[in-house]
Structure formats: structure tokens, C-alpha cells
């Protein structure tokens, strides 16, 4: 597998609801119908704008009796802002662009390449990755620094893409009894408090509680499918999960703290790979090293 795996067919402008005062990252890319951009483009600047602006945007977009795709996107932006406000976006534009390209390559072969995906690198040494409603996906710099090749990065992003496609963020809102409140707030464009509470419930799941074990398992299985479709070696994702599981059990920092049961998850991923006939694929270690500058040991 050569480096064509992530070259875009053409460059396009991804949709942006909130105007960016300072554009932090790269030009969005289109790959096989998959419109993708950066979290910086979506939320605007290093801080990412204000939650109030996003609440207003969500309310103005509301026209339907249920949470429409536009409203789901506004919710994704709101959650994205909350996460960016906590961690900040990594200022390395080249790294953000590289992550966006890898994520786009995976998303373009998923069942939903039409979603406008946004990818971003969070400015923290914590090891984690997050996905909220719509196509907003973030991975920490710390997680990337623990990886060894591009297939591992693609695997982590594929897992988060699985959360997006299965709408786990919206399901979290339903479980918290907040989806109806969000729909009402978006419909009337008046009840900002309800919209904010609904957003907070998703942020709480994404940043603190994490998705359920069943949802994590489902996203893992989907990740293997997406990786194989994109031409990546799915074993890279398995290796990364194993490494993170060993980090947690060896007394290290709480790697992937919102992604529980890493050892069991690694075993299920291995079983899924075997079920698919143990396919191989691209690892692209050299390209990963060129794009990810790790600190000297």
C-alpha cells in the first residue's frame, strides 16, 4: 500500500456555522465525497468562540419537530467548544492537518462519507480521544505521541468515527433525558437554558463518564471495518489498544481514561480481525515519523 491512501481528490471549503476570527488550522479536504476540516475551522480561533454564539446558532437552525442534522451539527459544535475550552487546540498546524488527512481517508470509506467531519488535536499530554454529536472528533497530542505508525492513528480516529456514525452522542442525550429538551430549545430559539443543559449532558459523557462498554465495543468493531475498507492494517489499532492497556496496568497515567476495559477491547478487536480473515494493510510508519515530531528521549 503506497502513500496514495490519504491524498485528497480535490480541496474544498467545509461548512462553518460560526465565523472564525482566527483560523488555526488547515484548509478542509474532500475525499470521495467526505467533506472534512479542522476543529479550529469549526469553532473559530484558539479558544473556539463562545458557547453562547453556538447556542444561538443552534436555535436559529431549528426548524423541524426533531433534532435535525443541522441542529445535531450545532450540538456537536457546542460540545466541541466545551472540550476545546478545557484543553485548547494544539498550535501545530502541520500536525492538525496531518490528523485531518488521516481521518478523512478513513471517513471517506465509511458508510457515512457525507458527514462534514472535523478533526483536531488537543493541546494536552493526556492520552485520550473524543467524539461528540455530528462529525466532531478530537484526539490529544499525548495519544499521538504514544503511537508508532499511521495505522495506529487511523485506528483511533476510526473508533471515534464509529461513535459519530452510530450517533452515540445523541443516544447519551436520550439516556440523560435531555434530547426532548434540546429539541424544544432548538425549535423555539428561546430556551437557551435547556439547550445548554442538553449540551452539558453530552459534555459530561464525552469528557468524564465516557460512552458505555457496549458503545465502546461497537465503535471498536466498526473501526476494524473502516480500517480494512480504507486500506490500513487493522492490527495497528490492536497494537495501540494493547499498549495502552499495558500502560494502565503498569501503574502509569490513566491512558484513555474515558475508554474503559482496554484489555477486553483489544481482545475483541483481535477476534474481529481474525473473523475478517486477518487482513493486512498499510502501516505507513515512515510517513507517520515525518509528520509527528516526538520529543527527544
How would you characterize this protein structure?
The protein is α/β, with parallel strands linked by helices and 297 residues long. The protein has one domain. 54% of the residues lie in helices and 8% in strands. The protein has a 6-stranded mixed sheet, sandwiched between helices. Strand 5 (129-131) and strand 6 (136-140) form a beta hairpin. Helix 4 (93-107) crosses helix 6 and helix 10 (213-230) packs across helix 12. It starts with 9 loop residues before the first strand and ends in a 6-residue tail after the last helix.
What's the gist of this structure?
With 297 residues, the chain is an alpha/beta fold.
List keywords for this structure.
single chain, 297 residues, alpha/beta, six-stranded mixed sheet, 13 helices
Helix content: 40-55%
**Into how many domains do the coordinates divide?**
1
Our Rg estimate from Cα atoms comes to 18 Å
- Report, as a whole number of angstroms, the end-to-end distance: 31 Å
The strand count comes to 6
User: Which structural class do you get from the secondary structure elements?
Assistant: alpha/beta
Widest sheet, order of strands:
1-2-3-4-6-5
Largest sheet at a glance?
Answer: 6 strands, mixed
Order of helices and strands: EEEHHHHEEEHHHHHHHHH
| Overall mean pLDDT | 74
Structure annotation, total helices: 13
Strand content: 5-15%
Low-confidence stretches at least 5 residues in length (pLDDT < 50)?
7-33, 43-65, 249-254
The general outline is globular
Amino acid at each position: 500500500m503506497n502513500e496514495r491512501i490519504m491524498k485528497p481528490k480535490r480541496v474544498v471549503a467545509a461548512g462553518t456555522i460560526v465565523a472564525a476570527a482566527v483560523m488555526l488550522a488547515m484548509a478542509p479536504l474532500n475525499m470521495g465525497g467526505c467533506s472534512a476540516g479542522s476543529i479550529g475551522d469549526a469553532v473559530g480561533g484558539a479558544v473556539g468562540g463562545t458557547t453562547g454564539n453556538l447556542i444561538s446558532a443552534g436555535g436559529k437552525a431549528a426548524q423541524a419537530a426533531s433534532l435535525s442534522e443541522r441542529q445535531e451539527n450545532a450540538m456537536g459544535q457546542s460540545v466541541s467548544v466545551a472540550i476545546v475550552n478545557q484543553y485548547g487546540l494544539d498550535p501545530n498546524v502541520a500536525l492538525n492537518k496531518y490528523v485531518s488527512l488521516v481521518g478523512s481517508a478513513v471517513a471517506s470509506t465509511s458508510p457515512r462519507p457525507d458527514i462534514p467531519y472535523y478533526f483536531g488535536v488537543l493541546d494536552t499530554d493526556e492520552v485520550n480521544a473524543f467524539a461528540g454529536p455530528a462529525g466532531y472528533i478530537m484526539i490529544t497530542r499525548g495519544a499521538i505521541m504514544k503511537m508508532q505508525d499511521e495505522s495506529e492513528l487511523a485506528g483511533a480516529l476510526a473508533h471515534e468515527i464509529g461513535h459519530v456514525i452510530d450517533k452515540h452522542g445523541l443516544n447519551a442525550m436520550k439516556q440523560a433525558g435531555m434530547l426532548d429538551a434540546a429539541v424544544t430549545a432548538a425549535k423555539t430559539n428561546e430556551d437557551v437554558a435547556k439547550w445548554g443543559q442538553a449540551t452539558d449532558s453530552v459534555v459530561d459523557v464525552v469528557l468524564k463518564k465516557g460512552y458505555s462498554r457496549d458503545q465502546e465495543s461497537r465503535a471498536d468493531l466498526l473501526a476494524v471495518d473502516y480500517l480494512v475498507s480504507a486500506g490500513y492494517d487493522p492490527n495497528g489499532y490492536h497494537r495501540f489498544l494493547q499498549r495502552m492497556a499495558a500502560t494502565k496496568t503498569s501503574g502509569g497515567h490513566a491512558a484513555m481514561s474515558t475508554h474503559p476495559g482496554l484489555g477486553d477491547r483489544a481482545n475483541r478487536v483481535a477476534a474481529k480481525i481474525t473473523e475478517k480473515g486477518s487482513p493486512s494493510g498499510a502501516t505507513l510508519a515512515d510517513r507517520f515519523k515525518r509528520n509527528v515530531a516526538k520529543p527527544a528521549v
